[in-house]
Amino acid sequence: MLVKNPIFLGLLLFVPISVAAEMLGWGEITVFVTAAIAIIPLAGWMGAATEEIAVVAGPSLGGLLNATFGNATELIIAIIALRAGLVDVVKASITGSIIGNLLLVMGFAMLLGGIRFKEQEFAPTAARLNASAMNLAVIALLLPTAMHFTAEGIGEKTIQNLSVAVAIVLMLVYGLTLLFSMKTHSYLYDVGSAELEGGHSGDDSHGDDSHGEQKTGDDEHGDEHQPNLTLWMGVLLGVTLLVALESEFLVGSLEAATEGLGLTALFTGVILLPIIGNAAEHATAVTVAMKNKMDLSLSVAVGSSLQIALFVAPLLVIIGWFMGQPMDLDFNPFELVAVAVAVLITNSISSDGKSNWLEGTLLLAAYAILALAFFFHPVL
Questions:
Q1: 34 closest CA partner among 24, 45, 49
Q2: Which residues in the chain show pLDDT less than 50?
Q3: pLDDT tens column, 173-187
């Protein structure tokens, strides 16, 4: 299990350090950095607790549980930022999560896996279905922005209403993808499960990014592994509260810290926050790729991007609507270009069902170019 790694256990020390930094007034930059580091191991423990509970819950309910909590850390950070009125940062973190999973995570997975195994294979049918779902997500993010720029004098209320309607459609589509991948066509997603030694085979959702971690971590347990449900529910509750606390510290110090570090809010939202929230699953995707389990690796990376686009982003629109915050799907055009580029190159590389180290390098190069562009972009 990834959370038993000594490095992850050591990073937990930053939880009390960040609390001390906030309480003793050590400065906004110190609070921001220590809270960011503290969230990384907490996210790993949240994923581990969810996976262990899912083992007891069974394949169907467990898959839904994993799919729902797969990006819980990013969702908590986004909700707190939304409550603080940092809507542009929330939008940037959404696009950054999609870009990071498609380019950074898949890039490292294909690069390191390709160096070790020369060429790796994965299910092309599932890859094409995921590509189609990502294309839909790009369209959904593009149209409200296109309406804003093409309809003269359109009001914010109209954009908000359109965004809420689109959000409902996307969440419905996400629910149907779960039904498709876990029930009616689960055999298309069983390849990665069958490769695991002694893991929990069965239904696997392409949106079930943290489910992959469960399989990886439970290899040594075998089919006889029965987690302590009460213990892991307590862990999940406690870690969730700690993530919320650290997110408060992170968001509260965000503007002052980024200014002090010489970073723009755009770069912070698109690059830094997604890396912080996704660090645990990033490590999982790369680890399983180096074990020649590319189906599972892509399930983690692409599944997380789909969950962000089809579930987290629409949910934040609806939450913002209830909170009275003007959260909509009218994104910065530069962010949309970056998402479209990421989806385009990812779909092109994954369409043949094979990967190698050069393709991983191309994905990483695309991410590096986009990161540099966001770094030098002057305005959010």
A1: 24
A2: 192-223, 380
A3: 998 988 887 778 777
pLDDT digits (tens, 9 = 90+) for 266-306: 898 899 888 887 777 778 788 888 888 888 888 888 888 88
- Taken in order 64, 67, 68, 70, the sign of the CA dihedral is positive
- Backbone φ and ψ for 356, nearest 5 degrees, come out as -150, 175
Amino acid 57 reads: A
Residue in 76, 28, 51 with CA at minimum distance from that of residue 256: 28
Long-range contacts of the stretch 183-191 (C-beta < 8 A, 24+): 183/60, 188/123, 188/125, 188/126, 188/129, 189/123, 189/126, 189/295, 189/299, 191/122, 191/123, 191/126, 191/295
Kindly report the number of other CB atoms within 10 A of residue 348's CB atom.
Answer: 12
63/204 Cα distance (integer angstroms): 7
Q: What's this model's pTM, rounded to 2 decimal places?
A: 0.82
- Those residues with Cβ within 8 angstroms of residue 227's Cβ, 6 or more apart along the chain or in another chain: 52, 53, 55, 56
Packing angle, helices 87-99 and 72-83, rounded to 10: 160
Write phi, then psi, for 121 (nearest 5 degrees). -120, 155
